[in-house]
Amino acid sequence: MNNDFQKNSRSLYRAKRRKTNLILNSLIVIVLTLIIIVAYNIFATGNDEKATTQEASPKTEHKTATNNKEKKEETEEKKDEKVEESSKEEDANLEEEQEEEASASEQADESQAVITEGGSNSNVIRTIVNPSWKPVGTTQTGEHTVVYDKSSVDWQEMLNAISYATGLDQSNMTVYWLGRDRTTANSSIGTVASKDKSLKYKVYITWVDNEGWMPTKVEEIAEIQR
């Protein structure tokens, strides 16, 4: 009986030991599996981050290059604007200087004018002749033929000469007659007045080859006559 009891005790002990070993081995396998999973995740995540960084790097470099290019273009645009503004200021100053010189020249011309009371008929109040008058310039070339057409270059250049001689701006000038001076070759006569008719003139002009129309005499008149 004692032998049977001892046998049963040994069998129970061995069974418990096998069960314990099985549990320990299972736990070891589980722990190793967890270690492998964690290690895999760590390495895999690290590689993904590295790949993401490597992929993002060219984008970042491209963005930086684009920003630098935009800044450079903006700087160049500002530089061009400054140059353009400076050029405009220089042009404005030059134009102002030219206007001042022209004004001084006109004053000097007026001071040289010879003014005579009366004139060729009773309608003339006074006659003005200025030896410093010059041709007003022309865009016409070759042999010149006078064209009395309001749309022609010749007509506009004749008005320029009349405006120059009388001091009337063309925007404040009414042309009553402009035609041939039959007493002198290559010459014309214009009758003009200011818009309010406070100033009325009969202007004699002559053509100078390659230089344009030049005033020769201005008569201030009392009434508009051809």
Supply the key terms.
226 residues; alpha+beta; 2 domains; 6-stranded antiparallel β-sheet; 55% helix; rod-shaped
How many helical stretches?
2
Mass-distribution shape:
rod-shaped
Order of helices and strands: HEEHEEEE
Largest sheet: 6 strands, antiparallel
In total, the number of strands is 6
Q: Span between N and C termini? A: 168 Å
Poorly predicted runs: 100-108
Question: Which strands sit side by side, in order, in the main sheet?
Answer: 1-2-6-5-4-3
Given helix and strand content, the structural type is alpha+beta
Q: What percent strand? A: 15-25%
Task: Please tell me how large the radius of gyration is.
Answer: 53 Å
Number of domains: 2
Range of helix content: 40-55%
List strands and helices in order, with pairings.
Layout: H1 2-111, E1 114-117, E2 124-129, H2 153-166, E3 173-180, E4 187-194, E5 200-208, E6 212-221
Antiparallel strand pairs: 1-2, 2-6, 3-4, 4-5, 5-6
Structural write-up:
Residues 128-220 form the DUF1510 domain. InterPro entries: DUF1510. Residues 92-109 have a biased composition (Acidic residues). Residues 49-119 are annotated as: Disordered. It holds the Pfam family DUF1510. The protein is of the alpha+beta class and 226 residues long. The protein folds into two domains: 1-111; 113-221, no CATH class. 55% of the residues lie in helices and 20% in strands. It contains two helices and six strands, in the order αββαββββ. The protein has helices spanning 2-111, 153-166; strands spanning 114-117, 124-129, 173-180, 187-194, 200-208, 212-221. It has a six-stranded antiparallel beta sheet, covered by helices on one side. Strand 1 (114-117) and strand 2 form a beta hairpin. The longest helix has 110 residues, at 2-111. The chain is rod-shaped, with a radius of gyration of 53 Å.
